[in-house]
């Protein structure tokens, strides 16, 4: 197997949603599998936190998270599925116990909630945090 393009990057759910909406709006109606895939993907993404995100909120969030030296993949996961509890951060950040203090985890959560206020704690999440 040969690497054709070593400069490819991962896309956030927000970027995929924006692109698919442009494709849907600009092109004539597709028929067949492409239309189905576009429709189903749009339907899925419109039920995720990315539907309320903006390019500016994502950029600002990434800037504020820079001091924590998170990997690109960790940042992408935090953008796609913003954490609301310390436990979620432990799942996202590799070796989080060694890399982050409890204060840093709380600061990350406050940055996430500042830039993505639409992501709210559910009663279930609050119960998990109090345990």
From TrEMBL:
SMART domains: RPOL4c. Its main location: membrane. It is a peripheral membrane protein. Belongs to the eukaryotic RPC9 RNA polymerase subunit family. It is found in: Cell membrane; Nucleus. One of its GO terms (biological process) is transcription initiation at RNA polymerase III promoter. Component of the RNA polymerase III complex consisting of 17 subunits: a ten-subunit horseshoe-shaped catalytic core composed of POLR3A/RPC1, POLR3B/RPC2, POLR1C/RPAC1, POLR1D/RPAC2, POLR3K/RPC10, POLR2E/RPABC1, POLR2F/RPABC2, POLR2H/RPABC3, POLR2K/RPABC4 and POLR2L/RPABC5; a mobile stalk composed of two subunits POLR3H/RPC8 and CRCP/RPC9, protruding from the core and functioning primarily in transcription initiation; and additional subunits homologous to general transcription factors of the RNA polymerase II machinery, POLR3C/RPC3-POLR3F/RPC6-POLR3G/RPC7 heterotrimer required for transcription initiation and POLR3D/RPC4-POLR3E/RPC5 heterodimer involved in both transcription initiation and termination. DNA-dependent RNA polymerase catalyzes the transcription of DNA into RNA using the four ribonucleoside triphosphates as substrates. Specific peripheric component of RNA polymerase III (Pol III) which synthesizes small non-coding RNAs including 5S rRNA, snRNAs, tRNAs and miRNAs from at least 500 distinct genomic loci. With POLR3H/RPC8 forms a mobile stalk that protrudes from Pol III core and functions primarily in transcription initiation. Pol III plays a key role in sensing and limiting infection by intracellular bacteria and DNA viruses. Accessory protein for the calcitonin gene-related peptide (CGRP) receptor. It modulates CGRP responsiveness in a variety of tissues. One of its GO terms (cellular component) is plasma membrane. GO terms for molecular function: nucleotide binding. InterPro entries: HRDC-like_sf (IPR010997), RNA_pol_Rpb4/RPC9_core (IPR006590), Rpb4/RPC9 (IPR005574), Rpb4/RPC9_sf (IPR038324), RPC9 (IPR038846). Gene3D superfamilies: 1.20.1250.40. This is DNA-directed RNA polymerase III subunit RPC9. Keywords: Cell membrane, DNA-directed RNA polymerase, Membrane, Nucleus, Transcription. It comes from Callosobruchus maculatus. The keyword rRNA-binding does not apply.
């Amino acid at each position: 197997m040969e690497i054709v393009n070593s400069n490819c990057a991962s896309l956030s759910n927000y970027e995929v949603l924006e692109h698919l909406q442009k494709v849907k709006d600009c092109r004539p109606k597709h028929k067949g599998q492409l239309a189905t895939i576009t429709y189903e993907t749009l339907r899925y993404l419109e039920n995720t936190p990315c539907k309320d995100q903006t390019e500016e909120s994502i950029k600002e969030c990434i800037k504020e998270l820079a001091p924590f030296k998170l990997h690109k993949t960790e940042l992408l996961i935090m953008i796609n599925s913003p954490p609301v509890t310390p436990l979620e951060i432990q799942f996202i950040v590799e070796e989080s116990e060694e890399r982050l203090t409890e204060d840093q985890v709380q600061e990350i959560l406050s940055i996430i909630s500042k830039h993505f206020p639409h992501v709210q704690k559910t009663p279930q999440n609050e119960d998990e945090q109090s345990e």
